[in-house]
Amino acid sequence: MIVSRFPFPLEKGDKLRAYYQLRELQKYYDVTLVALTDKEITKTQFAEVDQFCKAVVICRLTFFSKAFHLIRSFVSQRPLQTGYFYSWKAQRQINQLISDNHFDHIYCQLLRTTEYVKNKHSIPKTIDYMDALSAGIKRRVHHQPWYKKWIFRSEGKRLTRYEQHIFDYFEHKVIISEQDRQLIQHPDSKEIATIPNGIASSFFEDIGQDRTFDFVFVGNMSYPPNIEAVHYIVENIIPAFQNSTLLVSGSSPHSSIVNLTKKNNSVTLTGWVDDIRTSYAKGRIFLAPMMIGTGMQNKLLEAMAMKTPCVTTPLANNAIRATHGKEIMVGSTAQEIIEVIRELREDDELAEKIASAGANFVRDHYSWEQSVLELQRLMKS
């Protein structure tokens, strides 16, 4: 299994998916994990992942390697994503691993890792697209300063081509949602299996936390779609509810989020939280007005599991397929979002029904055990 980031701590979506897939895959396989990283991995972090693996191989990405292969990718018309995460030293390590072992399967998470093994044809391979990365990059073009727009446009086009190109190198292809599968522009894209995320059972536990904030938002706060969502809440939603409060929790807060919270007394920013459940449980309503990005928002699944009524946009809900007005509340515009929030705030019985139905929906449809069982069956076929 090759991943582009060491899968712990769980502050990013790809890490979360890799961690829980590892935890379940070890029931079926002896897993050798190859993790690319440009960060120091602590002994505690290593031990948390090592318990699920036969072996863990860490491949360090140096500044020189990233810079050189970014330039190389730019010239070759490959996505910059693949260049940033490529290293000749890592390639040698992976080649040696394959030569010294009799692996039954190679599993690559994200397009970033595919260059290492795309030409290894003696072992069956699976690529986890996770999401339609090309679409996510294209959606971010209009939110960039003028001097970055051309880079994002170029990367979007490169990724679109690469998503099609890499398809035929892998025997099996998976993606996180039907919405993302439809965005992969390959004539046989229907062959891509949808393997959703799951939810840890601990999120269904009542942790006895008082709901002291009107609204809460949780996520990796250096991720552009999350940054955009917080700005959207503060600028478009909060002003409609006098004296309302918002809790924002998540790792690596972007400077614009820090500055935003300094200027607005109604917003509390915690940064990283050891047990993120405590943040979900402090909010009366979970807001996720996602306007850009792709994939599945695990933050919604986690909030729903904790019986926090959720308000989101069609872009986010299309991936999880909850029913508006029954398990979740959905709005396309600021005014629509404000209206459904008012419904929840003014009708305690409705809020309770949405919260309970949402938790039941997640329990019935999103299990890491079932998700990885589907993946394992695909890999054996």
Taken together, the total number of domains comes to 2
Average pLDDT across residues?
95
Main sheet: which strands, in order across? 10-9-8-11-12-13
Low-confidence region ranges: none
What is the CATH superfamily of the largest domain?
A: Glycogen Phosphorylase B
Rg: 21 Å
Span of the ends, CA to CA: 18 Å
Overall geometry comes to globular
Sheet/helix structural class:
alpha/beta
Largest sheet: 6 strands, parallel
CATH topology group of the largest domain: Rossmann fold
The percent of residues in helical segments reads: 40-55%
CATH class of the largest domain: Alpha Beta
Q: Any overview of this molecule?
A:
The strands form 3 sheets. The chain has a 6-stranded parallel beta sheet, with helices on both faces. It has a 4-stranded parallel beta sheet with strand order 4-5-6-7. The relative contact order is 0.11. It has helices at residues 13-25, 43-50, 63-76, 80-84, 88-100, 133-139, 146-167, 178-181, 224-237, 255-263, 277-282, 298-305, 314-320, 334-346, 348-365, 368-380; strands at 2-3, 32-37, 55-60, 106-109, 125-130, 172-175, 193-194, 213-218, 246-249, 267-271, 283-288, 310-312, 329-330. The mean pLDDT is 95. Helix 1 (13-25) crosses helix 16 and helix 6 packs antiparallel against helix 7. Strand 8, helix 9 (224-237) and strand 9 (246-249) form a beta-alpha-beta unit. The chain has 2 domains: 2-198 and 368-380, 3-Layer(aba) Sandwich (Rossmann fold), CATH 3.40.50.2000; 201-365, 3-Layer(aba) Sandwich (Rossmann fold). It is an alpha/beta fold. The longest helix has 22 residues, at 146-167.
